[in-house]
Write a structure and sequence with these properties.
Layout: E1 8-16, H1 21-34, E2 38-43, E3 46-49, E4 60-69, H2 73-86, E5 104-110, E6 115-116, E7 121-122, H3 131-140, H4 150-160, E8 167-170, H5 174-182
Antiparallel strand pairs: 1-4, 1-5, 2-4, 3-4, 3-8, 6-7
Helix pairs in contact: 3-4
Pathway: Cofactor biosynthesis; tetrahydrofolate biosynthesis; 2-amino-4-hydroxy-6-hydroxymethyl-7,8-dihydropteridine diphosphate from 7,8-dihydroneopterin triphosphate: step 4/4
Protein name: 2-amino-4-hydroxy-6-hydroxymethyldihydropteridine diphosphokinase
EC number: 2.7.6.3
């Protein structure tokens, strides 16, 4: 990435509750990091969480990553959806809404963009309601975000603490995880 004006600050939520959950999270992060003009800067710790909505399924592993990219919001969304499909995510009428999934990738914040389009709503419309998003998001916010100040995220996270079965599962080190995946 060369021109700082074309670099966008993005927070992405990741979740998995099928198969080798941790491995799938790390593979998704590694794939994103390999995309041209995209760098994963920071990753949160991993949290094990109870399912929300459809309850008859295994617990999730959830985390948030901070990424710098030159992709537009819609291009990034389509790349994330493509990655989900490559990793075995099933979508469509036969899959349960909020049901089990190999990988789930959601754009939470993209710079200070506010949009409500058919394909993409930013900021993510339900992020302030979900402790499994707020707790890791707060932990890695590089600086106060214009739309969601760290204090607002912390307050919302504290209000939901313990209410969704969010438990620290594993601490992470992005550079160590990257080395393991590349070897």
């Amino acid at each position: 990435m060369t021109d700082a004006s074309s670099v966008h600050q993005v927070y992405i939520a990741l979740g998995s509750n099928m198969g080798e959950r941790e491995r799938q999270l790390m593979e998704a992060i590694h794939s994103i990091h390999q995309w041209e003009n995209t760098n994963v800067i920071r990753i949160s710790d991993i949290y094990e969480t109870d399912p929300v909505g459809y309850m008859d399924q295994p617990q999730f592993l959830n985390m948030v990553i901070y990424v710098q990219t030159e992709m537009s919001p819609l291009v990034l969304l389509h790349r994330l959806l493509q990655l989900e499909l490559q990793m075995g995510r099933e979508r469509g009428e036969q899959s349960e809404r909020f049901g089990p999934r190999t990988i789930d990738l959601d754009i939470l914040l993209y710079d200070n963009v506010i949009t409500d389009e058919q394909q993409l709503t930013l900021p993510h419309p339900r992020m302030m309601e979900r402790a499994f998003v707020l707790i890791p998001l707060y932990a890695i916010m590089a600086h106060p975000h214009e739309l969601y100040q760290q204090v607002s995220v912390l307050t919302a996270a504290a209000q939901r603490s313990g209410k969704e079965g969010v438990k620290l599962w594993k601490t992470t080190n992005w550079h160590k995880e990257l080395e393991l995946l590349e070897n």
